[in-house]
Design a protein that fits this description.
Four Helix Bundle (Hemerythrin (Met), subunit A), 66% helix, 2 domains, two-stranded antiparallel ribbon, 4 strands
C-alpha cells in the first residue's frame, strides 16, 4: 500500500448554480439597502430613497430563489445544458443593470421609474430598464417550458403543471399589468394626495386606484401555484393536474379583478 492510499479521498464541493449565486447577490444588495436606509433619511415623493431598490432586491431574491429550487428538481442533463446557462446570463445582466441604476438614482435622491426628465433618464427607463424587465419575465417563461419538457425531472404531475402554468401566467399577466403601468406613466388611477394613507410596507394607495397590487399578483403566480401543488401532494397524496388548472384559472380571475378595481379608481383596501 502506498502513502497515497492512506490519504482520505478528496470531497468535492458542489459548485453553486447561477441562480443560487444570483439569489445570494440579491440578498447582499437587500442587506446593503436596508443598512443604507438607516443612515440616509432623504425621501422621494415622501418615500425613503432606498425603499425602491430595497423592494426590488427582495423581489429578485424571491425570483432567483424560486428558480434555484425549481432547477434543483430538474434532471442532471438539463441542469448542465446550455439553455439554463444562457438564461442565467441573460437574467443576471438584466438584474444587475436594473439594480445598479436604481441604486445610482437612490444615491442621487432621484426617481428611477417613470423618470424621463433628461435624454439619459429616458434612455435608462424606456430602453435599459424596459428591456431588462421584458428579458426577466421572458426568460422565466422559457424556464417553465424547459420544466414542462424535462420528463426526467423529480416532479409530480401536479407540481410540473403548477410550475409551467405559474411561470406562464407570471409572463402574461406581468406584461399586461406592467405594460399598462408604463403606458400611463405612474401607479395611480385617480388622485393620491400627498400624505394620503397607504398600505404599510407595500405603499399601495388606500384612497384611489393603484395598479401595483395587480402587478404584485402577476409576478407571484410562479410561487403561488407551485405551493398549491405541493399542498396537494402532501403526505402520500398525489395532486390532481385538473385541480392545479382550476387554481390557475382562479388566480387569473383574481388578478384581473384586482386590475379592474384599480382601473375603476378604487383602492384594494380603503384606508380613508
Amino acid at each position: 500500500m502506498s502513502l497515497l492510499d492512506l490519504n482520505p479521498p478528496a470531497t468535492s464541493i458542489a459548485k453553486p448554480s447561477q441562480f443560487q449565486t444570483l439569489t445570494v447577490v440579491s440578498l447582499v444588495l437587500l442587506a446593503l439597502t436596508v443598512l443604507w436606509s438607516f443612515v440616509d433619511a432623504r425621501t422621494i415623493d415622501a418615500v425613503p430613497v432606498w425603499m425602491k431598490p430595497l423592494k426590488f432586491a427582495l423581489s429578485f431574491a424571491v425570483l432567483f430563489g424560486t428558480i434555484a429550487l425549481i432547477e434543483s428538481r430538474l434532471s442532471e442533463r438539463v441542469r448542465a445544458g446550455w439553455p439554463l446557462r444562457v438564461l442565467g446570463w441573460v437574467m443576471a445582466a438584466a438584474f444587475l443593470s436594473e439594480m445598479a441604476y436604481m441604486m445610482y438614482q437612490a444615491g442621487r435622491a432621484e426617481p428611477s421609474h417613470f423618470n424621463v426628465s433628461t435624454p439619459f433618464h429616458r434612455m435608462m427607463y424606456e430602453v435599459v430598464m424596459a428591456a431588462g424587465a421584458v428579458s426577466l419575465v421572458a426568460a422565466t417563461a422559457v424556464i417553465g417550458w424547459v420544466v414542462k419538457r424535462d420528463k426526467a425531472a423529480d416532479l409530480s404531475p401536479a407540481l410540473r403543471e403548477a410550475i409551467w402554468l405559474g411561470v406562464l401566467l407570471t409572463f402574461v399577466l406581468t406584461m399586461i399589468a406592467a405594460g399598462y403601468l408604463s403606458f400611463i406613466g405612474g401607479h395611480h388611477v385617480g388622485v393620491h394626495p400627498d400624505g394620503a394613507p397607504t398600505l404599510p410596507l407595500f405603499g399601495w394607495s388606500g384612497v384611489t386606484g393603484d395598479l401595483r397590487p395587480a402587478h404584485f399578483a402577476s409576478l407571484h403566480a410562479m410561487q403561488v401555484l407551485p405551493l398549491v401543488a405541493l399542498w396537494l401532494d402532501r403526505g402520500d397524496r398525489v395532486g390532481s393536474v385538473r385541480t392545479v388548472r382550476h387554481a390557475a384559472l382562479g388566480y387569473v380571475v383574481l388578478t384581473v379583478a384586482v386590475f379592474v378595481l384599480a382601473l375603476l379608481g378604487m383602492p384594494l383596501i380603503p384606508l380613508g
